[in-house]
């Protein structure tokens, strides 16, 4: 098993954690991994900010301005993939000899 920073949910739990968050925000709405909650009218720009904040704080990933593309956050599946990409990038940066470690 790969080392996870202390307190971070394991990668396999990212989708489950997002589902729990959505269950609190949208009680009674059952979203599939590929359901576009913005297109369905369940989410708006205010929710987008709440989602970005949740992802950044809960999963401890840095979100840069260039990451604020709606396509990264429009479905549970895409948001999960985004978290995995950010974690993978952070792991590369922490590795000796990784970017920024010259």
UniProtKB/TrEMBL annotation:
Signal peptide: none annotated. It comes from the Bacteria. It comes from Streptomyces pyxinicus. Gene3D superfamilies: ACP-like. Transmembrane segments: none annotated. SUPFAM superfamilies: ACP-like. InterPro entries: ACP-like_sf, PP-bd_ACP. This is Acyl carrier protein. Residues 9-87 form the Carrier domain.
């Amino acid at each position: 098993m790969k080392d996870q920073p202390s307190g971070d949910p394991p990668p396999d739990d990212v989708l489950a954690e997002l589902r729990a968050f959505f269950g609190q925000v949208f009680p009674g709405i059952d979203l599939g991994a590929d359901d576009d909650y913005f297109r369905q009218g369940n989410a708006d720009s205010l929710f987008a900010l709440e989602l970005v904040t949740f992802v950044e704080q809960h999963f401890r990933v840095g979100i840069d301005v260039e990451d604020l593309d709606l396509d990264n956050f429009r479905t549970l599946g895409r948001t999960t993939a985004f978290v995995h990409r950010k974690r993978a990038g952070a792991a590369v940066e922490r590795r000796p000899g990784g970017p920024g470690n010259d």
